[in-house]
Amino acid sequence: MKGLPGCELSLDPGRGRAERLYARVLGAPANGLRIRLRRVLPATDGDHRTILDAGSGSGVFSFELAKRHPQAQVLGIELEPQLVERANEIARRAGLANCRFETGDVTRLEFDRDFDLVVSVDNFEHVEDDVTAMKKLWQALRPGGTLVAHVPARERRWLLFGRRVNFDVPGHVRPGYRIDELAEKLRRAGFEIDDPLTVPPIFELIQEMGEVTDEEMRDVFNLGCGFCCVVAADDEAAALDLLGGHYPNAKRIGRATAATGLHFT
Fold it and tell me: pLDDT tens, 139-192?
């Protein structure tokens, strides 16, 4: 089905006529969802054959993944049976034969190295035992696979009041995550986390006030990152020792892989 991301919701039998018309013309009927689509989908690029959308909700991300990766089989797992039934019907009506949905709990998944890519968008903050959920997603990934996760920040930046703990949202068991907290939990679950440089606060403000995409922030502003060196893995320690004599905060921020493009975690 051609159209903006989320246009498949126009085929949802559980939505009213006005909402279906909106989705058909403008795509996902929520600004926050459109922002998440712009941020998450570029991180899923690559040659994936099996994709898991863990906590698929209405199915919007699963539908987009199925269209972006027609060679892949996309499986959406959702706790609510009614959403699963509706998402399967939408996929059928949209002709997305490579996309299906099943009822499941992310803390009780039994997959074993079945997926090249796992996507989890705004789910961990709903799960009391989030580390167990992360472990289940790690077990679902094949060696060398990728997890693309999106969560709300623990703190929200307000124009007049500075940073404040994120507001309560029904269904959330925590307001969000600090980046170091999330990285530590993912490491405990088995994931390898690269250590990118901290983004200066001014760049976060520019992005938020200007509604600038992640890609544009990296291409235009470079996110405040200065000089980078690429060295062989065997030379990492020597390079850090040399650079550390001039720049005490020098550190490894990533690694080269066989994949094309740049991937930020």
Answer: 999 988 999 999 988 876 665 556 667 667 788 888 888 888 898 899 899 988
Q: If phi over 0 gives left and psi between -120 and 50 gives alpha, with beta otherwise, what is residue 65?
A: alpha
- C-alpha distances (whole Å) from 24 to each of 17, 18, 60, 61, 127 are 11, 10, 13, 16, 32
What is the domain partition of the chain in residue ranges?
31-193, 195-265
Q: What is the pTM of this model?
A: 0.73
**Residue 253 to residue 222: CA distance in whole angstroms:** 14
For residues 251 and 247, give the distance between their C-alpha atoms in angstroms, rounded to a whole number: 9
Looking at the chain, which runs of residues are DSSP E strands? 50-54, 73-78, 99-103, 115-121, 141-150, 155-158, 162-165
Q: Which CATH architecture best describes the domain 31-193?
A: 3-Layer(aba) Sandwich (3.40)
